[in-house]
């Protein structure tokens, strides 16, 4: 059987959907079903546990798959890869006090970028960075405050983002063993951030690490 791209070390597969409740259970259901499909094994051979810090961990036949889960505000997403540890975060794009929040929480370089945009673009831009920081913390297994917040993430090469190509993980400016990216989905109504601990030699490796993003039906999570 051909290897599914989601289990290749140079690909992170992100599946996401909208949901109207019980997001945690549905996210876990999607995660196990997706892993079983990628590995071509019965659902009964994979189960989900959590590390002491809360990071999800697939067991049984799912051990080769590194995973991450996010849910909230009526949406959920899961990330799966055959490479190193991964993190994912999803946020609904909504009006924020983006300038004040950027000054309070972001690196000065990131803050300058957010505040330099037109006011109507700042909320999306803030969430573009924030979801990556959340994902970095998850990939490191340390959370936002102990891992993601202190690390500056890559700014987009163009804004607004587009082009229709799969996102590519880019090394963090001051920590090249971690790479991240973000993508707008649902017509720009949501932003998904992804990060991965790519290890040594990250510059060359992250250049080939693409994020495969796919929307799935909520029925898959039921």
Total number of helices: 6
Mean pLDDT, all residues: 89
In what range is the share of β-strand residues? 25-35%
Q: What's the total number of strands? A: 10
Gap between N and C termini:
28 Å
Radius of gyration: 17 Å
Main β sheet profile: 4 strands, mixed
Enumerate the strands of the largest sheet in spatial order, edge to edge or round the barrel.
4-5-1-10
Helix and strand composition category: alpha+beta
Mass-distribution shape: globular
Unreliable stretches (pLDDT < 50, length at least 5) are 201-207
Characterization of the model:
The protein is an alpha+beta fold. The chain is built from six helices and ten strands; from the N terminus they run βαβββββααααβββαβ. The protein has helices at residues 23-39, 98-105, 108-115, 119-140, 143-148, 202-206; strands at 11-18, 46-50, 56-60, 66-72, 75-81, 86-92, 170-172, 175-185, 190-197, 210-215. The strands form three sheets. A four-stranded mixed beta sheet has the order 4-5-1-10, covered by helices on one side. Helix 2 (98-105) packs antiparallel against helix 3 and helix 2 runs parallel beside helix 4 (119-140). The longest helix has 22 residues, at 119-140. The chain is globular and about 50 Å long. The two termini are 28 Å apart.
Gist?
By secondary structure, the protein is of the alpha+beta class. It has helices at residues 23-39, 98-105, 108-115, 119-140, 143-148, 202-206; strands spanning 11-18, 46-50, 56-60, 66-72, 75-81, 86-92, 170-172, 175-185, 190-197, 210-215. Helix 2 runs antiparallel to helix 3 (108-115).
